[in-house]
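Lecture 7 notes: from sequence to structure.

We start with a single chain of 230 residues. Read the sequence below before looking at the structure.
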Amino acid sequence: MMRTMRLPQTGFTLVEVMIAIALMAVLSVMAWRGLDSVTRANSMLEERTEGIALLLRALDQLDRDLALRATTELSSREVDALQAAADAGTNAADTKAATPPPAAELLPPAVQVRRQNGPPFFMEIIRAAPAAPGHWQRVQWWQRGNVLYRAAGAASASYPLPAPDDGARVAVLNDVAASRVRAWEPGQGWRSLPTVASARANATGLELAFDVRAAGSGGIQTFRRVIPLD
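Now the structure, written as tokens:
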């Protein structure tokens, strides 16, 4: 009788299979964590890029508003008196006549920076209306809470100019921790605005600085732009 030879069986044992599965699980977790980190970093980078783009647009709009400011012969005190009369509904001519002669002014007549019932700063610019040649409008910038707002009033060909209404308010920048405005006075240096001290010379530059909370990290980044005043 012929004997049947038994060949040895080949394959993996149960222990080897379990070890292989465990290694594959560890590698999968490591790969997932690496991919998750890359995804989070990319998402954070996109948020920061979008935030910086919004900030740059806000600064560009501020720069444009200042570039279009009115070159009027009225002094800043006269402009303030006329606008206050318009807001209060009083006779602008009587208010103008009662205005005392102006002292040396730091800012141009068409640019005013003042504090107003809470906002860290409030800037108003009387500028040419781009869509209505020969007309002017009041543009206001202010910070309330952590938001920077802008509002433009209706265009008009004569004083007093109408103030912007609530419907014109636009939130242009969020997560603003602080905002500062300074003016460069020749021979004196930077002066924080608003200021009540008299000026010896007209300002030749305006500095706008914003402390913005970075997306994700929560850290504060300071952005600064200097705009020359011709």
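The longest strand covers residues 176-185. Keep this in mind for problem set 3.
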